[in-house]
Amino acid sequence: MKASILKNKAKKEKELLYTILSVMILLLLWKVASVIVDKEILIPSPESTFMEIIRIIQSPNFIVSVMNTLKRALIGFAIALAAGVSLGMVGGFYKPSYYLLRPLVLIIRAAPTMAIILLALIWLQSEKAPILVGFVVIFPVLYENVVQGIRNVDVKLVEMMDIYDIKKLDRLKDLYIPSIRSYLNSGMAAAMGLNLKIIIAAEVLSQPRMSMGTSFQIERVNLNTAGVFAWALITIMLAGILEQGLKIINKN
Amino acid sequence: MKLEGVYKSFEEVEVLQNFHLTVKDKEITCILGPSGCGKSTLLNIMAGIIKPDVGTLREHKKRIGYVFQEDRLLPWKTAYENIQLVNKKASSSQLQSLIDMVGLTHFENKYPHQLSGGMRQRCSIARAFNFQTEILLMDEPFKSLDYDLRMNMVEALIDIWHKWNNAVVFVTHEIDEAILLGNKIVVLAKNPCRVEATVNIDVPQKQRSLEDRELINVRTKLINMLSKEKETSTYKSA
Ligand SMILES: Nc1ncnc2c1ncn2[C@@H]1O[C@H](COP(=O)(O)OP(=O)(O)O)[C@@H](O)[C@H]1O
Ligand SMILES: [Mg+2]
């Protein structure tokens, strides 16, 4: 036991070391590229990007912008999850409804994201449009995960439950939901990050008052490429935090 | 329960061909046979999990207990919860005594992946023992257990059987288990599966011991039968 814990710790330390090394190399390459190009407007240097991050974080609108975007991301995610789980269950348990829903899901999935953004802008206010876009992109992912979780439930366990006369509700609780969860866990983390990116992209076009997407647009209009880089890094960090948060929730 | 003229094949391979078997109420019927001869298929048909291609199942019982060849535990539930699953009315002291009976004391809060193969198997036996039925099917239930544990489990099964006064169909390829448990021992042969011989033992299970003259005779008979079967099957395949 003890030895394996120690070994595990050593492995973790090694992983961390490699990650740090890799980040250093990327920073170095970035620096080299910015020196070679030598135009801040094309490739800003890591230092000026870092200074921009500090400036953005200290600016009075920062928290509000991030919160507005975060709120959209979480609302959109919650709606997509609720719809994905409920429709996914219907589709997973009843074959006919799966085939009825299939064309709709396929169309939603195949539609170009830009078309959806434009339509959402036509239909909804700029504050709400990004939520619809995020929903349309991640709903099919979550829905499909739930359907797969139900379809791929272990037949041997279903037979066991048939033999032991387990009631419908207990079957759902003790067999189907755990099976759905194991499929949904990985899908949810991916959907969370994707949702954030799509919502920010939609915000760039819809221009709601104070949001991360709007901030991207402001930096671009001002030809402040370092500012765009800085917001991109902030987005990456936020996506990481969201995914970790989701992992912690899933564990409990 | 009775199987009459049952046929079953999987993708052209005929496993059961005109198969007959009677399982009497309140008796332990042991089924001895080489692996791959169709014992699990037979139990699945009795349990109603698979349908025979032809043939009938008479005096079918609606409520059946089944210890599957694999443990079929829920991976996300502890040993205790897995046993509780099939009978929510069982009290915690009843559940604890089942856990003690199969020798899982102190392991009740472990998850299946934290238990050894033999422990998982015993957990699935305890689960079946928590579900009282008129007929209990058991598919090589003691296979991954060492000798002492196996003899304890034989005793535990006899106790449960006395208490429930039900029918047990016990599939094994251990001759000793069969002669300690069976009122009737059915020896199967392979390709297709058929009843090679039937042996009845009248000594009450509680009075049996492997040193008994009668049981030693039965064992010798069974060993001869099984080895003869091996010869004919090797002869056939040659
Ligand atoms: N679902 C199945 N599909 C195809 N073949 C099967 C299936 N179940 C059993 N068989 C075949 O039927 C034969 C008997 O299997 P089984 O009943 O498991 O034997 P036993 O339990 O006596 O070892 C084997 O040859 C096996 O390969
Ligand atoms: Mg088998």
Features:
heterodimer, A: 252 residues, mainly alpha, MetI-like fold, 10 helices, B: alpha/beta, Rossmann fold, 9 strands, 24% strand, binds adenosine-5'-diphosphate, binds magnesium ion
Structure, described:
The complex is a heterodimer of chains A (252) and B (238). Chain A is mostly helical. The model of chain A has no long low-confidence stretch (mean pLDDT 92). Chain A has helices at residues 2-37, 46-58, 62-93, 95-110, 113-123, 129-151, 155-163, 168-206, 212-221, 225-251. Chain A has ten helices and no strands. The two termini of chain A are 24 Å apart. Chain A has a single domain (63-251), classed as Orthogonal Bundle (MetI-like fold), CATH 1.10.3720.10. Chain B has a six-stranded mixed β-sheet, sandwiched between helices. A three-stranded antiparallel β-sheet of chain B has the order 2-1-4, covered by helices on one side. Chain B folds into two domains: 2-63 and 133-237, 3-Layer(aba) Sandwich (Rossmann fold); 75-131, no CATH class. Chain B starts with a strand and ends with a helix. Chain B is built from seven helices and nine strands, in the order E-E-E-H-E-E-H-H-H-E-H-E-H-E-E-H. Chain B is α/β, with parallel strands linked by helices and 238 residues long. The complex binds adenosine-5'-diphosphate and magnesium ion. Magnesium ion (MG) binds at residues 39-40, 69, 139 of chain B.
Shape of chain A: globular
Q: What is the element string of chain B, with H for helices and E for strands?
A: EEEHEEHHHEHEHEEH
Low-confidence stretches of chain A: none
CATH topology of the largest domain in chain B: Rossmann fold
Percent of residues in beta strands of chain A: under 5%
How much is the radius of gyration of chain A in Å?
23 Å
Query: Largest interface, counted with CB-CB under 8 A?
Result: A-B, 13 and 16 residues
**What does the largest sheet of chain B look like?**
6 strands, mixed
Number of strands of chain B: 9
Question: CATH architecture of chain A, please?
Answer: Orthogonal Bundle
* Count of DSSP-assigned helices of chain A: 10
What is the average of the pLDDT values of chain B? 90
CATH class membership of chain A: Mainly Alpha
CATH superfamily of chain A: MetI-like
Query: Oligomerization state of this entry?
Result: heterodimer
CATH architecture of the largest domain in chain B: 3-Layer(aba) Sandwich
Count of domains of chain B: 2
